[in-house]
């Protein structure tokens, strides 16, 4: 019985290693950080890096998107079309603050 359990655990370890090695994953490129930039500047920088920018949320409506500040950036991984077991890492979600800067209370 012990020999069977040892053989089974070795087989499971080898099988999981083969599965992990056999799954191709697209190489992750570093994503430029656009937090604190205007949406226009951030979008240009991210698109030059080959990324698609998606606005996920906005707070306020007093500024046009081009002038809004990026307050958060997050990758949006998803399945790569037509490629089994590969991840599409070309989309980035951004959150925008579209209200004028408020003076700090003193």
Give a topology summary.
Layout: H1 2-22, H2 39-48, E1 52-59, E2 69-75, E3 78-79, E4 87-88, E5 91-97
Parallel strand pairs: 1-5
Antiparallel strand pairs: 2-5, 3-4
What's a concise summary of this model?
With 106 residues, the chain is α+β, with helices and mostly antiparallel strands.
Walkthrough of the structure:
By secondary structure, this protein is α+β, with helices and mostly antiparallel strands. The chain has a domain at 34-101: Trypsin Inhibitor V, Chain A. Helices cover 29% and strands 25% of the residues. The protein is built from 2 helices and 5 strands; from the N terminus they run H-H-E-E-E-E-E. The strands form 2 sheets. Strands 1-5-2 form a 3-stranded mixed sheet, covered by helices on one side. It is elongated, with a radius of gyration of 22 Å. Residues 29-96 form the PASTA domain. It comes from Mycolicibacterium nivoides. InterPro entries: PASTA_dom. Keywords: Signal. Residues 1-27 form the signal peptide.
Helix content: 25-40%
Strand content: 15-25%
Low-confidence runs of at least 5 consecutive residues: 17-27
Structural class by SSE content: alpha+beta
> Any idea what the radius of gyration is?
22 Å
Total strands: the figure is: 5
The sequence of SSEs as H and E is HHEEEEE
Spatial strand arrangement across the major sheet: 1-5-2
Query: How far apart, in Å, are the first and last alpha carbons?
Result: 75 Å
Tertiary shape: elongated
CATH topology name of one domain: Trypsin Inhibitor V, Chain A
Q: Give the biggest beta sheet.
A: 3 strands, mixed
CATH architecture of one domain: 2-Layer Sandwich
- Number of contiguous helices: 2
Mean pLDDT: 79
CATH top level of one domain is Alpha Beta
Keywords: Signal
Pfam family, one: PASTA
Protein name: PASTA domain-containing protein
Organism: Mycolicibacterium nivoides
């Amino acid at each position: 019985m012990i020999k069977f359990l040892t053989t089974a655990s070795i087989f499971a370890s080898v099988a999981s290693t083969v599965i992990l090695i056999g799954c191709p994953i697209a190489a992750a490129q570093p994503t430029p950080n656009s937090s604190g930039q205007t949406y226009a500047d951030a979008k240009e920088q991210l698109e030059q890096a080959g990324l698609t920018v998606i606005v996920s949320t906005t707070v306020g409506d007093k500024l046009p998107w081009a002038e809004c500040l990026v307050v958060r950036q997050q990758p949006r991984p998803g399945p790569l079309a037509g490629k089994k077991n590969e991840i599409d890492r070309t989309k980035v979600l951004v959150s925008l603050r579209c209200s004028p800067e408020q003076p700090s209370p003193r």
